[in-house]
Design a protein that fits this description.
By secondary structure, the chain is α/β, with parallel strands linked by helices. It has one domain. Helices cover about 40% and strands about 15% of the residues. The chain has a 4-stranded parallel beta sheet with strand order 2-1-3-4, covered by helices on one side. Strand 1, helix 3 and strand 2 form a beta-alpha-beta unit. The longest helix is centred in the N-terminal third of the chain and has 14 residues.
Length: about 120
């Protein structure tokens, strides 16, 4: 039998987030789907709504930077064109890592400092 802890951990799995993406994409095929490390939608969402008030968008909390990066890789190479061509945006914090490689910066926004809360 699965424990509550195991079930909660499963919710954070990248496959669960990919399924969430496919459901949002089915409901809003022209909407922007934003992938965040955590609850960063509350910081970015205000700016999205302020600058693009008519844009229909949804946020996916990926529960970690690595999951955001992994989902970006999965969607870039997905076998289904409708998923590869979906309107997506990926947001990560620089943290203490090296900056993202230049080829990733056109698809993934990375904060210039430790975290969005520090901007």
């Amino acid at each position: 039998m699965l424990s509550v802890e195991a079930m909660n951990k499963g919710i954070e799995n990248h496959n669960v987030k990919l399924l969430e993406f496919t459901r949002i994409r089915a409901k809003k095929p022209n909407g922007l789907i934003c992938f965040f490390e955590g609850e960063d939608a509350r910081y970015y969402g205000v700016r999205i709504q302020e600058n693009l008030p008519r844009l229909e968008w949804e946020a996916i909390d990926c529960a970690g930077k690595e999951r955001v990066l992994k989902l970006c890789r999965i969607l870039e190479t997905h076998s289904d064109l409708k998923y590869r061509s979906a309107k997506t945006a990926f947001f990560v914090d620089r943290d203490f890592d090296l900056p993202l490689p230049p080829d990733k910066r056109n698809k993934i926004y990375e904060t210039p400092c430790y975290s969005i809360e520090n901007l």
